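Protein 1 of 2
SEQ + STRUCT:
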Amino acid sequence: MSTAQPAVTPKVTAPPSTVGDRARKAKKALTSPWASTLAIVIAILWTVPTFGLLVTSFRPELDIRRSGWWTVFGDAFAGEGVFSMRNYETALFGSSTNLIDYFVNSFVITLPAVFIPITIALLAAYAFAWIDFKGRDFLFVMVFALQIVPIQITLIPLLSAYVDTGINGTFWPIWLSHSMFALPLAIFLLHNFMKDVPSSLVEAARVDGAGHVQIFFKVMMPLLTPAIAAFGIFQFLWVWNDLLVGLVMGSTSTSPLTVRIAEMAGSRGGDWHVLSAGAFISIIVPLIVFLALQRFFVRGMLAGSVKG
């Protein structure tokens, strides 16, 4: 008695795609010793000024005037190197600088200027992505086109509107200005991330009786965490390092740290020991934020770039 053997289908190996070939070539080029060496050199050149600023901020005034920051290594071997926190104490709490108040102002400005546009952009992006209404595509194009409007040409009209409404001299003009100019990019980015969410998830939620509010909070929000974090980092860095809006829209009591450091550079340009400490105080917070949220930033930048 013979048993019929099942037919064996030969395994067909698909030829490598053109996209796959390009990806492998790009990976090989980027991982070559020359590319790695170039990346290291660029990183060193990019870091040297910041490292020099950090070293200078800890040196006494006389040492700063006498020699450059790079001589600190020779002084350390000779037992002559001296470091102290005096420059930071003078910058933060000195009667002529008092950066601590402006440091607090920067936090008061930056946090609402990050949360306000993200909150509004999430709602608008969901509406553009998953709610069908008349004129949706036209409105989305108009919102996207607002990115080409430079903030410089709107400062005087905005300031006039703030004066007419009586909110000038408060934090509201700065919050509103940063939020308005962040919204077009925020809506565009979050809309694109929401459109990458499989429609089957949304349809399944609708079949289970979920409305737009439940879909937004229970389906979209958990998936959008990397995108929100990525834009939040961008917005935090932009607002914290901004000088123009804080200078034009702010007042003496609402000016951010960047405005005060710019004034120090003009009126106290000779006091390098104080100016270097103030500059490093200004950059330390964005540096900590970026390093702490770097993994969310990378995930947000890569989300939606590859579709499975």
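Protein 2 of 2
SEQ + STRUCT:
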Amino acid sequence: MQFTAKQIGEFLNGTIEGDETAQVSVLSKIEDGTAGSLCFLSNPKYESYLYKTEASIVIVSKDFEPSQPVKSTLVRVKDPYSAFSILLEKYNEAVNLGKQETGIQQPSFIHPSAKIGHNVFIGAFCCIEENVVIGDNCKVYPQTYVGAGSKLGNDCIIHPGVKIYKHSIVGNRVIIHSNTVIGSDGFGFAPQSDGSYNKIAQIGNVVIEDDVEVGANTTIDRATMGSTYVRKGAKLDNLIQIAHNVDVGAHSVVAAQTGISGSTKLGENSVIGGQVGIAGHLTLGKGTQVGAQAGINFDTEENKQWHGSPAQPLKEWMRATVIFKKLPDMDRKVRELEAKIAELTAVIEKMTTTQT
């Protein structure tokens, strides 16, 4: 398929700067752009590639001012990243047109009491237990397990190897990537007088609301009682641990290797960086932003930024890191001052002794 700059501009409601008849047939990164490819520039870090790329068309911000001549035709839009993501989605739909899987592959097991919607695909070696409900247009890829009483809404994509424990509730248009576990036991053990631990039964479930995406190898534990929630529109990266009774707020984004301990509530529209650790029984206000590798062990206010471990407000953390870099020099100066003080003290003591 080929598109002209004019067609792309009309589709994205953008303005053209250059050759409206320039054609593209592939999408690529700006640093890999070749003749016939469409790229985008969003991050100023990559601006230098714009002046070297062979890409036929580049999507840029409407406010972008090039500092050198540009060979490519530019399509100016409000948000280049969002615009390019729309094109990626359309391209993906186009290349997969006619490849929509339906039907049930064998071998697989589907309990007679399970209710399977219309236009559903179930891959080989899947196990669908009793009283499961799978909505219309779902794709459940091979080696997936769906436990008894669980429900999947419409238009879900469950990638290979996912394990969904009993009584889990998954909303509409949810994507769960490979080897993720939904509804495993929460980490609950009661210490005994002899130093051993008794397991606390985890009788709750997991509720994943509409339009959530969960990355590969992520674990979401079921609640001790009640539900663990991942609210509407939340996006979870790979290798995340969500503990029992956690409530992940709507439209929040959580990056890889983050761990959220039991019963903590993450406010809506929060952004959590990679490898963040969040203690249990906390409430993080909506719009909370936490930098990578931070440690949170306290409640946070709304719309605040936190960095470091233990976490500090962003401005305090930035000042602290500047001081931290200077510590070796400060230590040297302190040692020099201590030596001079010692010399002066010795002189004073000698003078005092002489006078005496």
